[in-house]
Design goal:
By secondary structure, this protein is mostly beta strands. It contains no helices and 6 strands. It starts with a strand and ends with a strand.
Length: 62
């Protein structure tokens, strides 16, 4: 499962496993009891080293 690093918004700095099929879209939408947010793929695509391994950077969509 790919890793995503969230930049900005309610999940800033968090790294999550995201099912590959969810990354087929240009946006990730989260809706839950603890947080919500919309993130889009950083352009150009950027991968950053994290303690859990390399993660693709997705930024909050304002």
């Amino acid at each position: 499962m790919p890793l995503v690093l969230h930049w900005g918004g309610p999940r800033h700095g968090e790294v999550d496993d995201v099912p590959a099929e969810q990354l087929a879209s240009s946006v990730l939408v989260y809706d839950g009891p603890r947080w919500f947010g919309v993130y889009q793929r950083f352009q150009p695509v950027r991968v950053q080293a994290t303690p859990r391994g390399p993660a693709e950077v997705w930024v909050v969509r304002e």
